[in-house]
Amino acid sequence: MTKVVTSTPTKMAKSTITTPPQRGSSFHEQVTYPIGSVLAPQYLSVVDVNDDDKPDIIVAINMGHSVGVLLNDGSGQFHAVEMYKTGQRTFPPGVAVVDVNSDKKPDIIVTNQNTDTIGVFLNIGHGEFSFEKDYEVPFSFSPKCPQVVDVNGDTHPDIIVANTRGDSIGIFYNSGNGTFISWTTFSTGKDSEPNSVSVVDVNGDNKPDLIVGNLKTSNVGVLLNAGNGKFLNQTIYSTGLNSRPESVFVADINCDSKPDIIVANFNEQNIGIFLNFGNGTFQPQITYPTGDHTQPWFVVVGDVNDDSKPDIIFSDKTNHEIIILQNY
């Protein structure tokens, strides 16, 4: 189905991708890869991990207490999943895949929300991984949404997580050899319950900033980088009363060379956009309805129809669909 939704200054058309795909979709019918009964695969990353110039799939397997790796066979199909255990009752919700020890091989960083740890699996070559270490965060912080970005300007990528029950963003700084030290937190506000974080320079000073989706306080927090890996107190932008922003993504949605904030508002049945003034402050939210009985969950941005305009892709938890808002 296609539904046109208009608003100034960006226009979007809505398409729903199901199995089989709706008429007019530009996507083939889905191919499925079994992970295991009731193992609940969650967030994933698509990165070439075995240096064959073909993207592989790395996924957090929540109820399987593991990370799964599906290597690309070269034809766009994938080999059976290989699982790496994250520990008993870890319930990992998210992964990031980045070279953390400067050996030019991407490693796996996983958040274990139930055991309050962050696990590191080092790439030992040929798409195989070896468990390196678990890094403990304070009890009951429930870390999610790992990002691996150099935030203190030393050229070594650091680990950033949303501490859902710790009402903060936590950072482990990279010591330079792929080990991590100096756990530091930055408050997102009392009872904020941050569920997602993006790490992007939003004010043009070449220092990555923190953009946070705060579930319980229904707002987006922007923490500007003050230098040396320290961050200013957050500035908050409302996403609507009881909107429950499940995820945030940062991308230039209106093609003005300024990164904007895109948010999935779970309870409000809409996608919200905060356009960037250019100095790290943002206009009030513009919303795009996603339809009755939808629950926008995880949102990303990419050009899906090759028209050089960024489109919005999000998952609908209620209807088990992927929905695309095409930019036009």
From TrEMBL:
<feature type="region of interest" description="Disordered">
    <location>
        <begin position="1"/>
        <end position="26"/>
    </location>
</feature>
<dbReference type="Pfam" id="PF13517">
    <property type="entry name" value="FG-GAP_3"/>
</dbReference>
<protein>
    <recommendedName>
        <fullName>VCBS repeat-containing protein</fullName>
    </recommendedName>
</protein>
<keyword id="KW-0732">Signal</keyword>
<dbReference type="InterPro" id="IPR028994">
    <property type="entry name" value="Integrin_alpha_N"/>
</dbReference>
<dbReference type="InterPro" id="IPR013517">
    <property type="entry name" value="FG-GAP"/>
</dbReference>
